[in-house]
Design goal:
Layout lengths: L1 H27 L12 H5 L3 E8 L9 E11 L5 E9 L5 E7 L6 E9 L2 E7 L8 E9 L9 E9 L5 E2 L4 E3 L4 E2 L3
Parallel strand pairs: 1-10, 1-11
Antiparallel strand pairs: 1-2, 2-7, 3-6, 3-8, 4-7, 5-6, 8-9
Length: 184
């Protein structure tokens, strides 16, 4: 009789052992840090190489509102330090109007022409010790009409790097296909 009870309890013991093992395996993979299922928008569009791109803090602002466009450079998988740049920012003048250049205090000498031509902003900058920040320049623009973010692009005219004796590496630049929205 005692032996029969052992045989009847055996499946329950095995089930408890299997469930405990499965739970232990699941919890063994847990860490203290939370899992981030999505990368930031910028990270998603960047490719290996020297990326130059614009970020936009809002692509749904109503007319009359100021939005911030930031030109950035980020090296992915390469060790390059930008030293100088010439960049054209293109936009639809029916949808956006340049308002001002945000001054940065990072040792980079910059010149930005907000009125180069309708729909064109020209920017240049340089630093003999290299541009340490990813930010090349920052613009405030006034929204005139919806859909402005789709028309905002940039063209790299020149980009030099320290590691190649200030050589122009524009041909190696990976341009982003669109402005990346980092706010809203």
């Amino acid at each position: 009789m005692f032996g029969n009870k052992r045989i009847k309890a055996w499946p329950y013991a095995v089930a408890v052992l299997l469930v405990g093992t499965a739970l232990g395996a699941v919890f063994a993979g847990c860490t203290e840090e939370p899992v981030r299922p999505f990368q930031d928008e910028e990270q998603q569009i960047l490719k290996p190489g020297l990326n130059v791109y614009l970020t936009l803090d809002n692509d749904r602002a109503p007319p009359g509102t100021k939005v911030r466009a930031v030109a950035k450079v980020r090296a992915m998988g390469v060790e390059l330090t930008p030293a100088g740049f010439q960049i054209d920012v293109l936009y639809d003048p029916k949808k956006l109007e340049p308002a001002e250049v945000v001054q940065l205090e990072d040792g980079v000498l910059r010149a930005v022409n907000l009125a180069a031509a309708p729909g064109l902003i020209r920017a240049a900058g340089a630093s003999a010790s290299g541009i340490e920040s990813e930010v090349l320049f920052v613009l405030e623009m006034t929204v005139k009409e919806a859909g402005y973010g789709e028309t905002l692009t940039l063209e790299v005219k020149e980009l030099t790097v320290l590691e190649r004796n200030f050589a122009d590496v524009t041909a190696d630049v990976v341009p982003a296909p669109r402005a990346v929205v980092v706010g809203n």
